[in-house]
Amino acid sequence: MKETNCIGVSMPSNNFRKEKDSLGELNVPADALYGVQTQRAVENFPISGLRPWRAFIWSIAAVKRAAALVNFELGLFNDREVDGKKFTAKQLADSVTQAATEVMDGKWDSQFVVEPFQAGAGTSHNMNANEVIANRATQILGGELGKYYVHPNDHVNMAQSTNDTIPTSIRLGALWRVDELLTSLKNLQSALEAKAKEFDSVVKSGRTHLQDAVPVRLGQEFSAYAKAIERDAERVRRSAEGLRRLGIGGTAVGSGLNAHPEYHARMVKKLSEITGLELQTSDNLFESMQSMADAADFSSSLRTLALTLIRIANDFRLLSSGPSTGFDEIRLPAVQPGSSIMPGKVNPVLAEMLDQAMFHVVGCDTTVAMAVQAGQLELNVMMPIIAHNLFEMMQVVIGSVNAFTERAVKGVTANREKAEGWLAKNAIIVTALNPVIGYSQGAALVKEAMSLNASIKELAIEKAKAGTLKHRDEDRPVRAEEIESALSDLRKLTEGGIVGGVGGGG
How far apart are the C-alpha atoms of 16 and 146, rounded to whole Å? Predict the structure, then answer.
């Protein structure tokens, strides 16, 4: 007789052990650290083949480790006898602590097999952790898998409910990687700032509405990118502060039923010690059970960052377009061939990757938003998908930003000849003459220059010499020297202020 394991592979029946829960008996893979409730979830939800993110495994193990320590300190572990073997309260608590620490260290990631599309609230993920830690603790005490010298519910889940462990784990998991995420943004900001300095002498045509506009320095464009990333990083940092407030100890609905009165405060302190994170107690455990608004706030900061990165990536694509028939004002590193049919073609692949990654982040945030508003009364049961999408957003942002920084931004070069060449053809630099000749004469000059395919400077000087250009507020001719003064150094047009004489002037 053959049985089917958790991933659909036919296996001999002797590779299983039988476990029993309130619904009856079920076969569990013989060497699995997880147990019957996890196995039910695996069989019930064969949806996507996805597994929980490492952040979610680490964070829930941190909760279990802290709970074992706190509950032992509060005298809530009792001595126990199983199969004629006696264990002290300290042995039981120590075995749970050791097993949870091993999970935090990543030793048993393969045993977390429940995918994100699961039963509401995250009971399956919580029980996956409870069973893995209980079985591993049993092994530490010299027992066999499935014997449960340490009980998944009575010991590992003591004073807890899925309803407070999962939101706590979501907060901890996000905070666990927030410094890594902020570092990736700081590195991108620094790389953009370095390019801003490198490109500061390149004066080029500005563009608004994708049409010619007054001059700008390439360095100024890059300095704006750097500042935008800095501001988005601050939004991420600010929103992460709300995640530091933990609702652990609320148990099922926020009342703290079955938890010691000191449990909440002690858990927050212990989790701070274990994780090295700055954490805070909740001022209202009922709100902490009901609301996932802090997760939505953090998610939305990542969405805003994604929108900024999409904009920057698209600018890189535009500025490097061509090269023969596009802007070609910057050159991106050639990291791979761009076509299977067109020899020599090189594409802006890192910018294209960043776009796609950030589209995905925006989609994840939309999922988080929909899940956050779907809570009812004392609980939001959509927490598993909130967790998955938050952790996925962080992974995608970190990975894509690091790649874009290292393989695109740091290697980008300026094409000064092309940038200054486009500027020489830009009739909109007539804007610098507005204080001298006024808007109407300037508009007429642009129209004529474009029809003649002529330089605005040359045409304006020609008309000044002919005496046909008048001062804006006076009925007297503009001198050629005034035109020359206003347009002789185009860099001045990027530095603000009023260029050229206004009104008088000899």
Answer: 11
Strands (E), 70-138: 80-82, 85-87
- Determine the distance from the C-alpha atom of residue 368 to the mean position of all C-alpha atoms in its chain, rounded to a whole number: 13
**pLDDT tens profile 334-371:** 998 877 888 788 899 999 999 999 999 999 999 999 99
Domain 2-158 has CATH 3.40.50.300: no
The reported pLDDT for the residue numbered 4 is 36
C-alpha dist (Å) from residue 279 to 57, 181, 269, 297: 19, 19, 8, 17
Sequence ranges of the chain with CATH classification 1.20.200.10: 164-417
The β-bridge relationship of strands 80-82 and 85-87 is: antiparallel
Give the pLDDT score at 13: 52
Cβ atoms 401, 184 nearer than 8 A = yes
Residues 6 or more apart whose CB falls under 8 angstroms from that of 501 comprise: 435, 436, 482, 485, 486
Q: Could you tell me which CATH number the domain at 164-417 has? A: 1.20.200.10
Percent of the chain with pLDDT over 90: 79
Give one DSSP letter per residue of 33-68, joined into a string: SS-HHHHHHHHH--SS-----HHHHHHHHHHHHHHH
**Residue 335: other Cβ atoms inside 10 A:** 15
Q: Is the pLDDT of residue 50 over 50?
A: yes
- For CATH 1.10.40, list the domain ranges present in the chain: 426-494
Assess whether 339 carries a catalytic annotation.
yes
- CA-only gyration radius of the chain, Å: 32
Residue range(s) in the chain whose domain bears CATH number 1.10.275.10: 2-158
Task: State phi, psi for 246 to the nearest 5 degrees.
Answer: -105, 145
Q: Which residue has the tokens 């005034």?
A: 482
Which SS3 state, helix, strand or coil, does residue 204 take? strand
Catalytic residue among 48, 201, 255, 339: 339
Second-level CATH architecture of 426-494: Orthogonal Bundle (1.10)
Q: Write out pLDDT tens, residues 259-305.
A: 999 999 999 999 999 999 999 999 999 999 999 999 999 999 999 99
Residue type for position 3: E
Mean pLDDT value of segment 385-406: 98
Q: Which amino acid, residue 302?
A: L
- Tokens for 281? 């107690």
